[in-house]
Amino acid sequence: MDAFHGEARFTGLTALDVAGTAIQARHILIAAGAVPVLFGIPDEHYLATSEEFLALEHLPHRIVLVGGGYIAAEFSRIAARAGAQVTVLQRGERMLQRFDPDLVGWLMEAFDGMGVHVRTRTAVTAIQRAGDIFRVEAYSDAGQETFEADLVVHAAGRRPALDKLDLAAAKVAVEERRLKLNDFLQSVTNPAVYAAGDAALVGPPLTPVSSHDAKVVAANLLEGNHAKPNYAGVPSVAFTSPPIAAVGMSEVEARESGLRVSIKSERTSGWFTARREAERVYGYKTVVKEGSGRILGAHLVGPHVDEVINIFALSIRHGLTADDLKSTIFAYPTGASDIGSML
After folding, report:
1. Any long-range contacts for 174-183 (C-beta under 8 Å, 24+ apart)?
2. What is the pLDDT of residues 290-342, one digit of tens each?
3. Which of 46, 57, 294, 316 could be cross-linked to 233 through a Cys-Cys bond (beta carbons 3.0 to 4.6 Å apart)?
4. pLDDT at residue 269, as a whole number
């Protein structure tokens, strides 16, 4: 196997140029990852990327995070625990749009306790720099506002890193900045090209999905097209304090599906898991199909839910029922031992 280092671009249907070296191949896999989305605002180059944030040797005193997804939720927790003053500016109605709104609301109480200042319905319009100080201009319901910071971090999500590949040279179709792929993760316009992970953006934008896609593409390259990705029961976790996790159908999706479902939700600090961790924020919402008892979705917030969600993911992927889980004897006291009470 040969390794080439440098930026790659297509020069033909099955040809690449990598930093001046011409490469010809029977098949090409695009696994270029993702880059931060562009805001299209003045001086957005002042925004630090997530990689730059993680490379910092010392955290500055005042940090503004622009965006309200995974990166904002996780970085704000890190920075606040390290003693920084943290402000999150989120354009939407709430943080963590991919998670259940009720549970996110409970989580925001923990953010308040950590001293993280979350401003929703606040759109950043410009970033200015005066010496070592950044001034973030934003518009909210209160009108035009300015937030001063020692560091401003891009936390508004990422998009497939396709811009420099010159996909047109290989006749690889793109629609709304996404590759047009078939069920085998293969380009619909150039059968020599496949994609996986963030570059493909077919499944959820999560690290385990990239590994899953890679196995699917490898099987199709070696044995011909037969393998398709299966994204059923893929859990998602934001590693905040406490963590929040989700898998399967949301309450809204369940109610709009036409299925007869039972939804159970509770916020409690009385369970042993919460008491043991002295955590006030602990709750869940589960979605079960009536009649069959199949688990369709689970949404959790609190200590150890980053592990407990995997059991619900296993159940969804393999068709287990609420009775299957309720009849299982879990080690006690663990986070999983609360599962029976959630169904």
Report:
1. 179/30, 183/228
2. 999 999 999 999 999 999 999 999 999 999 999 999 999 999 888 898 999 89
3. 316
4. 62
Query: Whole-angstrom distance between the N-terminal and C-terminal Cα of the chain?
Result: 51
Q: Closest Cα to residue 341, out of 289, 266, 274, 287?
A: 266
pLDDT band per the 50, 70, 90 thresholds, residue 272: low
- Exposure b/e, 255-293, CB count within 10 A at least 16 = b: eeeebebeeeeebeeebebbeeeebebbbbbbbbbeeeb
DSSP 231-252: -TT--EEE--SS-EEEEE--HH
pTM metric for this prediction? 0.90
E strand or H helix that includes residue 125: strand 123-130
Place of tokens 């589960």: 286
- For the chain, the farthest-separated pair of C-alpha atoms sits apart, in whole angstroms, at 65
How open is the CA angle 270-271-276, to the nearest 5 degrees?
A: 95
- Which residue stretches of 12-143 are H helix? 50-54, 70-81, 101-114
The token pair that represents 248 in the structure block: 């399967």
- 116-119 and 85-89: which strand pairing? parallel
For residue 305, what are its two tokens? Answer: 């839910």
Sequence letter at residue 222: L
Q: What is the pLDDT of residues 27-86, one digit of tens each?
A: 999 999 899 998 899 999 999 999 999 999 999 999 999 999 999 999 999 999 999 999
11 near 114, Cβ under 8 Å? Answer: no
How far apart (Å, rounded) are the C-alpha atoms in residues 143 and 322? 49
> For strand 123-130 and strand 133-140, is the pairing parallel, antiparallel, or unpaired?
antiparallel
